[in-house]
Each structure stands twice: as C-alpha cells, then as structure tokens.
Amino acid sequence: MARAGLSKQRLIRAGAELADEVGFDRVTVSALARRFDVKVASLYSHLRNSHDLKTGIALLALEELAERAADALAGRAGKDALAAFANAYRDYAGEHPGRYAATRFPLDPRTAAASAGGRHAQMTRAILRGYDLPEPDQTHAVRLLGSVFHGFVSLEASGGFSHSAPDSPETWAWVVDHLDALLRSLRAPEP
Amino acid sequence: MARAGLSKQRLIRAGAELADEVGFDRVTVSALARRFDVKVASLYSHLRNSHDLKTGIALLALEELAERAADALAGRAGKDALAAFANAYRDYAGEHPGRYAATRFPLDPRTAAASAGGRHAQMTRAILRGYDLPEPDQTHAVRLLGSVFHGFVSLEASGGFSHSAPDSPETWAWVVDHLDALLRSLRAPEP
DNA sequence: TAAATTGCCTAAAAGGCTTAGGTAATTTCT
DNA sequence: AGAAATTACCTAAGCCTTTTAGGCAATTTA
C-alpha cells in the first residue's frame, strides 16, 4: 500500500489551510485525515493530540505574521513604520482568517516563550523608538497598539464594520493617522 | 418522578454560569444536562440545538453588558462618561469571562439586529456627542473605541499583560486618558 | 539480504450531538 | 373531582470526534 507521506510539518501546514477555509475552531483531526485520505488514527503517529495540532498551527501563524511584520518594517521609521506594521497585521488577518484566529490560541508559558510572540513585542518597541517615549509611556503604548490592532482586526473579521459607511479601510487609515498623532504628542521633552 | 423544572431561560442562565466557570467554548449540552442531573435528550425540548444554546448565552451577555453600560453612563458626560463606559466593559469581562467571550459569538443578521448590539453602538455615539465630532470622524471614533475596548479586554483575558510591569489597570487608565485627549483634539471648530 | 524502524492500518472505548418515540406528571376542562 | 390534553423528561439509537492499543507492510539501515 502506498504511503501518504505525512509528517508533523505537512499536517500543520494543511491544518492551517483548513483553518483559513473553514475557521480555526472547526479544524479537527478527522477533517485533516479526510484531507489526506488516510485513517484518523494514522495522524496520531505525528501529533500527540488535537491540542498539539492547534498549537502547531498557532506557532506557524505567529511565525508567518512576525516575518511579514519584519519585512514591512525593514528600512522604515516613524509613521511610515507604524502604518506598514499595522497594514502587515491587518492584511495577514484578511488573507488568513483562520491562521489569524490561531494566533489567539492560548499557549502554555513554555511554548509561548519559545514562540515568535516575543518578536512581535520587540517590533512594536522598535516602532516606538522612533517616537522616543519615556517610560512607562512606552509600555502603555505597546499595549495600546496591540489592543487597537487586534481589536480592529477582530471586529472587522466578525463583520462589525461591514454594514455602514464609511468603509473599513478608510477607518483603518484614520486610526493609524491618529495613533501617530497621539504618539507624537507623547515625545519625551528635550533634556 | 419529580421534574427538574427546566426552561429555556433557566438553561441559558445556567449555560452562562458554566461559561464563566469553564470557558464559553467548553459549554456543552451534555455538561448542562449533568448540571441539572437530567438526561441530555431532555434539553432538546427547550433548545433546538447546541448552537441555539450558545446564541442564547450570547444574547443574554449582550443584554447584561448593555444594561451595565447604560447604568454607568447615566448622568455622566465627556471624559467621565468615557471612563465609566470603558470600565463597565472591562469590569464585566473580568467578572464574567465566559459571558464576555459569548458576546463575540457570530449571530446571524436577523438575530443580531434584534439583539442589544445596536444599543452598544448607540451608547458609544452618545458618549461622542459630548466631544462634538464632525462626520465622518464620529464613525471612525466609534470604531476606534470599539477596537480599543475589545482589543484590550481580549488581550488582558488571554494573559497578554500579566507578566510585566506596570500592571494592566494602570495601562487601562492611561489608555482612557489618551483616548479622551485624542477625541478632544478632534472637536469640530466653532462655526 | 536480513534486521530494524517507521507509517499507516483495524479495532474499540468514551464522550458529544441529535432525532424518534414513549411514559409519567401536570394542567385544563367539564 | 375526574377525564382529557398537554408537557416534561425518559430510553434507545445513530452518527461524529478523540484517543489508545496492537498489527502488518513498506522502507531504511547494516
């Protein structure tokens, strides 16, 4: 009997595609087995359990998102960097809704520490460096940006903005604009 | 045999409690039946299906949250109203994490239209009235507030802010403060 | 080519969702 | 109050997902 050529990597990758197609919370070991035309139990040679699969998808998504954000940030500073970073975030969520949802999958502390999650915070701080904020404003600002980006993307994904003018890209630009203004207003005074 | 005295209302109420205890996505018809010491099939006289139960919990939560927000808003205006509204939101999510998660359950358009969701948007607009914003800034601002509140609460719930100083209530106050400043800066010029 | 490993299989248990159809408790009507 | 109608909960059964145990065949290694 020919083998299907499964591996943890391939399964996680296919799981991510499945998530984008049907939603992260509908990703199931069974559905994945069907996709490879293989019996369910076969997947358990590669995955400890269903939680393991979801964790894998989450880590993959965090990695991809971090890479996109890093690319977007390269060679930019100030508002330019802020906008590029914000767009990388929103675009990724738009193109890969299931993967984006996966980035919210709760990771146990050890896994989280080894994930790309830290790079996200690092990049946000890098953007803020251009605004030269004093502590503790900088930390507050990291959290504000995280909240706005995640909140916006998440409300947009659940259709919150879809039935009223102006359309949501317009609001997105407005939000980035005013976040920039807010951050500029916080610049540390010259010594 | 004595009856348990089930009803759709009671089931949804108990489902909401269960959600707060174990998480909204772990709310299950079976668990609910166990809680009432009744066979699973019995619940199907009161609920169409599991989706129906979750929808009910979502509607309950939206209702409760709207009521709290309305109470918080009563007799306040300007920054005072903004802070009270924001706190109502955050406090509710802190006290009732499962119910809060339920407010994000996707409702079909007809159900959503009949829900308390509309009142939330109305209240946000009421707060903004105090800032006297021109259109389309007002709509953008409604969305910004929604994004920040939801994003913050959601990141806080998933433990995003818990392992670093300053603590998250401090950031929350800071965020409300600077949102107020942002909104004030947008006030329509005197005619 | 024989031995060791690996990849996928069958089988089965446990738990969740849902429907169909039945019996006992309660309410309503006479 | 007693009969009739309704309601509340039950048993039974089918289907789906997760997970474990143990087996055989394909592949890799020696």
Describe this structure in words.
Chains A, B: InterPro entries: Homeodomain-like_sf, HTH-type_TetR-like_transc_reg, HTH_TetR, MT1864/Rv1816-like_C, Tet_transcr_reg_TetR-rel_C_sf. Chains A, B: This is TetR/AcrR family transcriptional regulator. The structure is a homodimer of 191-residue chains. Chain A is mostly helical and 191 residues long. The first copy, chain A, has one domain (8-185): Tetracycline Repressor, domain 2 (Orthogonal Bundle), CATH 1.10.357.10. Helices cover 68% and strands 0% of the residues of chain A. Chain A has helices at residues 8-22, 29-36, 50-73, 78-95, 97-102, 109-114, 117-129, 137-157, 168-185. In chain A, helix 4 (78-95) runs parallel beside helix 8, helix 4 (78-95) packs antiparallel against helix 9 (168-185) and helix 8 packs antiparallel against helix 9 (168-185). Chain A is elongated and about 70 Å long. Chains A and B meet through helix 8 and helix 9 of A and helix 8 and helix 9 of B. The structure holds a DNA duplex (30 and 30 nucleotides).
CATH topology call of chain A: Tetracycline Repressor, domain 2
Radius of gyration of chain A, in Å, reads: 19 Å
Q: Give the name of the CATH superfamily of chain A.
A: Tetracycline Repressor, domain 2
CATH class of chain A: Mainly Alpha
Distance N to C terminus of chain A:
75 Å
Give the overall shape of chain A.
elongated
